[in-house]
Fold this sequence. Notes:
This protein is of the alpha+beta class. The protein has two domains: 5-120, Rossmann fold; 128-283, Sandwich (Tumour Suppressor Smad4), CATH 2.60.200. It has helices at 18-29, 44-54, 66-79, 95-100, 106-110, 138-145, 148-154, 157-165, 227-236, and strands at 5-10, 33-38, 59-64, 84-89, 118-125, 128-130, 133-137, 173-179, 182-194, 198-199, 203-204, 216-222, 247-251, 254-266, 269-287. A hairpin with a 3-residue loop joins strand 10 and strand 11 (203-204). Helix 2 crosses helix 3 (66-79) and helix 6 (138-145) packs across helix 8.
Amino acid sequence: MTAPKALLILHGKQATNADVREAVELQRELGWDLAVRVTWEPGDTARLVDEALAAGYRTLIAGGGDGTLREVVQALLAAGSDASLALLPLGTANDFARAAGIPLVSGEALALLDEPPVAIDVGQMNGEPFVNMATGGFGSRVTASTSEELKRVLGGGAYLLTGLTRFAEIGSAHGRFQGPGFDWEGDFLAFGVGNGRQAGGGQLLCPQALVDDGLLDVCIVPAPEDTVGTLGTLLSGGLLGVETVSVSARVAWLDIEAPQPIDVNLDGEPALGEQLHFDVLGKALRMHLPGDSPLRGGATAPGTDADPKSARGR
């Protein structure tokens, strides 16, 4: 019987990770023909995906954080491939992995290769794909400006520390958000458009999001009079966190128009725009997820509207 084979595309910073090496060796001992390729510079991920597909690999593994996951998915979509994908979470925050229930222990994450792949959605912003979430506003500036060294030392707590030290820079933006059955306009501190549920090192912006419903969850944090207090609630989690101060919706698509460019973070990739269009590539990616992953569903979650395309206002 031919051994199942897969190729791990590993972020260059993890090339000397002993836990990863041990997990790969274990997977090989369990009968997998598991090859490893390491990235070095921009463009490597797309090249390695293309080379893997040309070599006949039908299963790939993204070894890194949310940004690495997005790069591999972007390359798979560009190639028009239906190869399946597993995630070996090695980033600072691992927001998608945590929400999806993917183990952070390398050996346990690679064990998901034995789970049959399931079809999940991929979000798009102006045609650019994202697997987890697009965030905009002050939170995106915090994420983009948090240093790699601070993230290495403090992990997800680095985002909190950066946010606390930048209170003097807090400012709101103005925008109009429109989608099927949803229309909101005003000043806001931050927003999230989620295929996944959390971003920025554990901020649960879209707690009811599912990756297989063909919809995007939207969270908007309006700018109140007590801006500093509200942002403090968001950064610390508070008692109820973002749900106490946000407007939310679940839509098939969303348009955002703003008089000034908005800072956006797309699964770790910074962007800037005044007109943003979000939509969904339904069931566009085959991914190895835990059988009981919280991000998988189909039934309407408690507290949502019966019609999933309608807005959930608070």
